[in-house]
């Protein structure tokens, strides 16, 4: 007697052998996601990053990707500057990595004063020194002709800062300080040292070393032997009180400059190997397995380059659409260790030019 799925002899039934599908090996486990700082002082962005930036596995970890001109957000930890966690997204590619403090450029989103006499414009790069709840302490090197009594620094709210370097001025520092009033145009003679104070006759907060081309300044107020001036030099607006006797009539060709030009010159070295397109999201890891982490993902329909096939995790890269353009100011390229994706996940994808209906068993993948 036969019952469905069983063989019965003398009223004793035993399971009938039914051929089961062969189970494939389980997909290898990914490492944990790179985490945000435990205490976040500020989150800035997403903003366009002008500077070529390396994404790393921790502050002392290897570089797995580099980018410039893309939109990214940064989470700054509380305490002394170390590294920030940066999240970048570009057309379906999402990456998270640590960026060293020295590699992060911060810019003023609105005018603010450093040391009581200096206002950086929106194009000047600021460095991060420290962080507290909702604030960052930022600094910048002073131009050689401006010698402050103390290093330039300011503690500012997160709203006063941005990661995006503008290609034009988004605010007028001089108008903010002097409430839009235009001063009388005069000059400081060349090759002089001029003491600058916050109030008339007070100890100087900086010394202005006037260059050989002299310096055109705006004079906004007079108080006996003292004059309150404003002067632009390479993206920094300085203002304060000097002795009136040091002023002369405005000179043609005198120095009064703002920020240097915006410039990017990325370097790329792109290999080309197997190219696949997946219709599912592929998780991305990076680093040697002793200290690796999940750093992002790539959503379906974006081309993936398989640089090296490996048994568990293969080396991959996601090419930037503008990589062929030598004049591009936006790009992403592999870092020291690059990215990893599950080989099993990649083998479920279609090679470029391959019909989407092709089954995995019909694909001729490398023997691993």
Helix content: under 10%
List segments where confidence is low: pLDDT < 50 over at least 5 consecutive residues. 1-24, 259-272, 354-368
C-alpha Rg (nearest Å): 30 Å
Shape: elongated
Which percent band covers the strand fraction?
35-45%
How many β strands by DSSP? 32
Structural class: mainly beta
Helical stretch tally: 2
Instruction: Give the end-to-end Cα distance, rounded to a whole number of Å.
Output: 49 Å
Sheet with the most strands, sense and barrel status: 6 strands, antiparallel
**What spatial order of strands do you see in the largest sheet?**
4-7-9-10-27-26
Overall average pLDDT = 81
Structural description of this entry:
With 368 residues, the protein is mainly β. Among the domains are: 40-103 and 265-355, no CATH class; 174-249. The chain has two helices and 32 strands. A six-stranded antiparallel beta sheet has the order 4-7-9-10-27-26, with no helix packed on it. The protein has a six-stranded antiparallel beta sheet with strand order 12-23-22-21-18-24. Strand 1 and strand 2 form a beta hairpin. Mean pLDDT is 81; it is low at 1-24, 259-272 and 354-368.
